[in-house]
Q: What sequence folds into this?
């Protein structure tokens, strides 16, 4: 996946929301987008999948420019999991089936049903397949929404803060599941994430954004004291415990 010179601004505002964003993303790798509130992280995700249409640039996946095809065609290549998901009055099975919408023409086919049942089994959702979404816990609901995204058979999964409303246990369970999906299906995962330490544990590459621009891009080598302090405007210290890095802010006494 190649993103080149991507820029976006809201028509009613003279402020540029995204400016000259460039990066590459590889299958089988998770890319984390980090930065302060208002840096343009969620806007970038929405521009990638055409929820918002960029004013300049290109988003190329396997030779196809996402900005030059229909929304239905985009949905066959990219899935998008927003930050907030409503507890709609549908069963888990029907919710996952919604992921097949880009492919359904005259009605649900045997192939659609087989794909949905396979995804439900893979995600270990069989015990709750006939329960309604509003009856589930936050962690269960997020796993169902991931299953819906997976049912689209995407090449790219876009996740906007997939752990924002989850407790500690479910944060680790959901991100472990995301990593497993990414590796086993060899797809690109790009996610906005606020917790730097979770990002360090689960992401392979990073986009650090500041003032609507890409401040730094790369692997864990870019996650230095200087870079993080520049992006977040707070001093930090990096610790290594059992070969894993942890970042802690240095607060004044």
A:
């Amino acid at each position: 996946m190649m993103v080149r010179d991507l820029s976006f601004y809201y028509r009613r505002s003279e402020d540029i929301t995204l400016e000259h964003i460039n990066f590459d993303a590889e299958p089988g790798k998770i890319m984390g987008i980090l930065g302060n509130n208002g840096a343009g992280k969620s806007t970038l995700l929405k521009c990638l999948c055409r929820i918002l249409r960029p004013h300049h640039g290109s988003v190329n996946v396997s030779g196809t420019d996402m900005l030059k095809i229909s929304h239905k065609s985009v949905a066959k290549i990219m899935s998008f999991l927003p930050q907030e998901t409503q507890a709609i009055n549908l069963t888990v099975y029907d919710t996952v089936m919604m992921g097949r919408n880009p492919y359904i023409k005259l009605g649900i086919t045997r192939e659609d049903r087989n794909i949905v049942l396979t995804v439900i089994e893979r995600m270990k959702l069989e015990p709750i397949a006939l329960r309604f979404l509003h009856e589930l816990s936050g962690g269960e609901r997020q796993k169902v929404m991931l299953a819906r995204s997976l049912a689209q058979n995407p090449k790219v999964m876009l996740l906007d803060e997939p752990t924002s409303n989850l407790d500690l246990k479910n944060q680790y369970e959901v991100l472990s599941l995301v990593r497993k999906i990414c590796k086993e299906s060899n797809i690109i995962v790009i996610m906005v994430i606020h917790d730097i330490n979770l990002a360090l544990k689960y992401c392979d590459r990073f986009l650090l954004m500041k003032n609507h621009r890409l401040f730094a891009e790369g692997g864990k080598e870019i996650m230095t004291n200087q870079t993080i302090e520049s992006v977040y405007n707070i001093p930090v210290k990096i610790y290594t415990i059992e070969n894993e890095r942890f970042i802690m802010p240095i607060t004044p006494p």
User: Anything to note?
Assistant: Residues 9 and 15 are 7 Å apart (CA to CA). The domain at 2-249 is CATH 3.40.50.300 (Rossmann fold).
